Amino acid sequence: MKIVRPYFYILTLILLYISPGNAQNWNLDIKGYLSGFKVGIASGKFTKNNDKILLEIKAETVGITKLLFPWEQTIIVEALLLQKEIKPIFYRIDDLREKTKKGHMELTFKNDLAVVTSAMPSIISDTRRKPVPKELIKNILDPASAIIAIGYMSGIANKCDHKIKVFDGRRRFNLLTEDMGIEELTPSVFTDSSGKALKCKFFIKKIAGYSDKELKKHPKSGYIWLQKLENSNIMMFPVKVQMAIGKGYFVTHLSVRN
């Protein structure tokens, strides 16, 4: 069950999105299921003021998963939503495992370059991986900003064929999406989402900074379902994400409330 934590973190980031309208707030509720059993939840708030985006979110394991593997995580992201692109400003993620094991990663972006301003464990003493070369962390996005960019660009193009360069402070990867057409979603006990959705397959191409263990175990692909945000002509956001884990599936669902 330890694999649930990194997958829920990744899928939580995938399910984060906002509208491009005037200053507004959105409340987010996210639920994660492993082979039909609820294993994680997340809640938070998006604030958009002109072109400034602020995300604050908290995720945690629940039920028997929480008893066996207690885990909490908070994410704070600031970025600029420009006419055709996303510009990250600040990214921080804090992790608490087994009630005592703390970790965090903090990035700032200056002159289109990602800078690690704070990290625990330290990236300098991390002997499991080679540092990502400086030339690979220029003009890139943090994981949360990358997912915002997928929805933003898909809304503009009305399709999701994209390539986005991503850096999380330790690892550098490309997030690739492939348009799979329109699919009809129906409500269930897991989600209230319904109606037509743009289905996208995504691939994670590992570039640099991975340990040998991460190269073998980190996820490689999955599916995202996007729907246009209410009262918006082009903006889209994910309502469902699915990734294979062994013989089962990890699925997350998102609800958004103004």
Brief account:
The chain has 4 helices and 13 strands.
| Intertermini distance | 34 Å
Give the SSE order as H and E letters: HEEEHEEEEHEEEHEEE
Q: Compute the average pLDDT.
A: 85
Which second-level CATH architecture applies? Answer: Beta Barrel
Could you list the spans in which at least 5 consecutive residues all have pLDDT below 50? 17-21
CATH class: Mainly Beta
What does this structure look like?
The chain is mainly beta and 258 residues long. The chain has one domain (4-257): YmcC-like fold (Beta Barrel), CATH 2.40.360. The chain contains 4 helices and 13 strands. It has helices at residues 4-14, 63-68, 143-157, 212-217; strands spanning 24-34, 37-49, 52-61, 71-81, 86-97, 101-110, 113-120, 162-167, 172-185, 195-208, 221-228, 236-245, 248-257. Strands 7-6-5-4-3-2-1-13-12-11-10-9-8 form a 13-stranded antiparallel beta sheet. Strand 1 and strand 2 (37-49) form a beta hairpin. The model is unreliable at 17-21 (pLDDT under 50).
Show the helix and strand layout.
Blueprint: H1 4-14, E1 24-34, E2 37-49, E3 52-61, H2 63-68, E4 71-81, E5 86-97, E6 101-110, E7 113-120, H3 143-157, E8 162-167, E9 172-185, E10 195-208, H4 212-217, E11 221-228, E12 236-245, E13 248-257
Antiparallel strand pairs: 1-2, 1-13, 2-3, 3-4, 4-5, 5-6, 6-7, 8-9, 9-10, 10-11, 11-12, 12-13
